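Exercise 7. Given the encoded structure of a 596-residue chain, write a plausible sequence.
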C-alpha cells in the first residue's frame, strides 16, 4: 500500500481539470494516443457539448518512478457550484487533492469553496497554476493569491499547462512525495465506502467503492451496513478506461462491485460494504448529506408514461445521488414527481438526461424553494409547493431560506453587482480587496431570488468575470404571498408561485401577458387573471374567434341583426361553461424566462 496514491483534482469551472487529467493519462500511457481525445474522462455527450464536467470520474494509472512502481487512483471532479455534492463524494475517497488555479483568471469563488471541503477532510493540498503558456497568464499575481489563501511557500506551487504538458513531471513528483499513502490494514475486516454508482441494463447496479480496511474477493457474501441488504460479489475489479475484473481488490484501492441487483433503491451512495461472516465494527462516515435547494415538478407529457418516469428517475438517481424525488399530483398535469435539485443548471441537466438517456420528455413546473410556515395553531408546515400553503387566515408567519453569497469580480463591476443583489432583496455584509484587480463581495440574499436568472445576469453584468458561490445560512421571516393564475376563473395549480408581496403584482402582470401570447384563441373569450387570495392583481383577455352571423342580412329591420347577435352571444356563453382551455407546454417553461 505504500506505493498507492489516491487523489482528486479540484478547481473552479473551466480552469482546465479535464485537460490536465488528459495529460496525466497520456504520460502514464493509461490511454493509448489513438484513444485519447479532449476531455477523455467526460464520457457523456452532454459534458462534451457544454464543455463542462457533470459527473466525477475515477480511473487507475500505473506510474514508474525510478525503480519503484506506483498506482495512482485519480478522481476528476466537476467545478460548477451545482455539482459540489459530486466533489464532496470524491474528496471522501482520497488522501490528497490537486488544487488547480487558472493563471489568466486567478482564484475564483468555487476554488475557495472546494478547497475548504478538502481541508475539512484533512487532504494534502498541492497547489498548481494552470495555463501558464497563455498570453494573459498572471503567474506571480496568482501565486501571491494562493500564498495568501493557504499559506504555502512559493516553491511549493507548481507551474503547469494541461494543454502542452509543461510541469506534468513536477506534478507526479509532488503526488509521490507529498500525498500520503492510504492508511489501512488488509487483514482487518472489510470496510469500504460506496462513493458512486451507475446502472447498466445488462448487469444491474454497479457500485464504485474505496476500500479503507480489508479486502474483497469475487464470490464473497457481502453486506451493506446501513441498508442491511446481503448479496454475493459476482464481480469485483478496478477502474481503468473500462472496468477490469480482478480476483481480489485490497485496502487503499478504488474499484467497482457488481452484485446483479436490478433495483436502484437497494444501493445507497455513502453506504459501507463489509463481509457478512466477519463484519467491520462501524460504518464509515460518508460525505455530507445532500440538501436540495430548488424544487420543481416533473410530469410526463403522456400520463400513461408515469411508471416509466418513476423507473427512469430511479436509474438516474443512482448516477446522480443529489437528485431527490417523491410522487405528487396536479389538477392541471395529473400524476408526476416533486424533484429536488441543487440549482437551476442541475435541473436543466436532469431534464436533458431524461430526454437523451431514457427518451422521456417531461413538463417542468415553476421551480420553487421550500418554506417554513407557522400557523396560528402553533403547527409547523414545510411548504414545497404553493398548494401546500394553508388558508391565509391560519398563517402566523412564513420563513424563507437565506444564503450567504460570495462573489469575486473585477472592481469596475462592483456597482452593477451591488445593484443586482439589492434588487434581489439582498444586502452587503462584507467587501474585501483580494488584490488590485479582484474584489470579494459577500451578500445575504433570499434563496428564492437566485433560483431563476441570477447567475446569468451576474455573468452579463460582469462580462463573464464574476464567479459565484453560496451556502445556506438559515431561515428568516419574509412577507411572502401565494400568487395564483386563473383561466376563466379556474386555478392552474402548476403555474402558482410563492413570491414576495412587493414583487407579486409586477410578476402577475408579466405572467398574464406571457400567457396571452402563448394560449391559442378559442371560440369563446378567455380571461387570464393573477390573484393574491381573492384579490385580482392583473388581467389579460384573449378575444374569441367570431363568425359574422349578420353577413346574410342586407337591408331590413335592425331587430333581425340584433336577434342573431343575441343568439350568438348565448351560444358563446354556453360554450365558455363547457369549453376547456388547453395550456401549452411552453407556458410552464415561459415562467423561467420572464425578463425584468
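Solution.
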Amino acid at each position: 500500500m505504500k506505493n498507492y496514491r489516491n487523489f482528486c483534482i479540484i478547481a473552479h469551472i473551466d480552469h482546465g481539470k479535464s485537460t490536465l487529467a488528459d495529460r496525466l493519462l497520456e504520460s502514464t500511457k493509461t490511454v493509448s494516443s489513438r484513444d485519447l481525445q479532449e476531455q477523455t474522462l467526460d464520457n457523456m455527450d452532454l459534458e462534451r457539448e457544454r464543455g463542462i464536467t457533470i459527473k466525477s470520474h475515477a480511473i487507475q494509472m500505473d506510474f514508474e518512478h525510478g525503480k519503484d512502481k506506483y498506482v495512482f487512483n485519480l478522481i476528476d471532479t466537476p467545478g460548477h457550484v451545482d455539482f459540489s455534492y459530486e466533489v464532496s463524494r470524491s474528496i471522501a475517497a482520497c488522501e490528497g487533492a490537486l488544487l488547480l488555479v487558472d493563471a489568466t483568471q486567478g482564484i475564483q469563488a468555487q476554488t475557495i469553496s472546494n478547497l475548504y471541503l478538502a481541508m475539512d477532510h484533512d487532504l494534502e493540498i498541492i497547489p498548481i497554476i494552470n495555463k501558464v503558456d497563455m498570453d494573459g497568464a498572471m503567474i506571480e499575481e496568482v501565486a501571491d493569491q494562493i500564498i495568501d489563501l493557504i499559506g504555502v511557500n512559493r516553491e511549493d506551487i507548481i507551474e503547469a499547462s494541461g494543454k502542452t504538458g509543461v510541469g506534468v513531471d513536477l506534478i507526479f513528483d509532488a503526488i509521490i512525495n507529498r500525498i500520503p499513502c492510504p492508511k489501512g490494514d488488509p487483514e482487518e475486516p472489510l470496510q469500504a465506502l460506496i462513493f458512486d454508482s451507475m446502472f447498466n441494463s445488462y448487469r444491474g447496479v454497479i457500485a464504485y467503492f474505496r476500500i479503507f480496511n480489508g479486502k474483497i474477493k469475487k464470490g464473497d457474501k457481502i453486506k451493506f451496513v446501513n441498508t442491511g441488504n446481503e448479496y454475493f460479489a459476482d464481480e469485483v475489479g478496478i477502474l481503468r478506461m473500462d472496468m477490469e475484473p480482478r480476483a481480489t481488490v485490497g485496502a487503499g484501492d478504488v474499484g467497482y462491485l457488481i452484485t446483479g441487483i436490478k433495483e436502484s433503491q437497494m444501493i445507497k451512495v455513502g453506504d459501507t460494504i463489509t463481509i457478512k461472516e466477519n463484519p467491520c465494527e462501524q460504518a464509515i462516515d460518508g460525505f455530507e448529506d445532500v440538501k436540495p435547494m430548488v424544487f420543481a415538478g416533473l410530469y410526463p407529457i403522456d400520463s400513461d408514461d408515469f411508471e416509466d418516469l418513476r423507473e427512469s428517475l430511479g436509474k438516474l438517481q443512482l448516477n446522480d445521488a443529489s437528485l431527490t424525488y417523491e410522487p405528487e399530483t396536479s389538477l392541471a398535469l395529473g400524476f408526476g414527481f416533486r424533484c429536488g435539485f441543487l440549482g437551476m443548471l442541475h435541473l436543466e441537466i436532469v431534464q436533458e438526461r431524461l430526454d437523451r438517456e431514457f427518451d422521456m420528455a417531461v413538463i417542468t413546473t415553476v421551480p420553487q424553494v421550500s418554506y417554513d410556515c407557522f400557523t396560528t395553531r402553533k403547527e409547523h408546515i414545510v411548504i414545497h409547493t404553493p398548494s401546500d400553503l394553508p388558508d391565509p387566515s391560519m398563517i402566523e408567519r412564513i420563513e424563507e431560506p437565506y444564503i450567504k453569497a460570495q462573489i469575486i469580480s473585477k472592481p469596475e463591476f462592483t456597482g452593477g453587482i451591488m445593484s443586482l443583489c439589492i434588487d434581489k432583496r439582498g444586502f452587503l455584509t462584507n467587501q474585501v480587496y483580494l488584490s488590485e484587480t479582484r474584489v470579494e463581495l459577500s451578500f445575504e440574499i433570499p434563496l428564492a431570488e437566485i433560483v431563476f436568472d441570477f447567475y446569468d445576469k451576474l455573468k452579463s453584468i460582469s462580462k463573464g468575470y464574476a464567479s459565484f458561490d453560496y451556502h445556506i445560512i438559515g431561515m428568516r421571516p419574509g412577507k411572502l404571498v401565494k400568487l395564483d393564475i386563473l383561466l376563466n376563473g379556474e386555478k392552474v395549480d402548476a403555474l402558482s408561485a410563492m413570491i414576495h408581496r412587493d414583487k407579486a403584482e409586477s410578476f402577475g402582470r408579466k405572467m398574464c401577458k406571457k400567457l396571452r401570447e402563448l394560449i391559442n384563441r378559442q371560440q369563446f373569450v378567455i380571461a387570464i387573471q393573477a390573484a393574491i387570495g381573492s384579490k385580482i392583481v392583473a388581467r389579460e383577455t384573449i378575444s374569441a374567434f367570431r363568425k359574422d352571423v349578420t353577413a346574410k342580412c342586407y337591408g331590413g329591420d335592425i331587430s333581425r341583426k340584433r336577434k342573431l347577435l343575441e343568439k350568438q352571444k348565448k351560444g358563446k356563453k354556453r360554450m365558455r361553461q363547457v369549453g376547456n382551455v388547453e395550456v401549452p407546454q411552453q407556458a410552464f417553461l415561459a415562467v423561467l424566462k420572464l425578463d425584468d
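Remark. The chain has five domains: 4-178, 191-275, 294-367, 372-477, 481-593. Students should compare their own answers with the one above.
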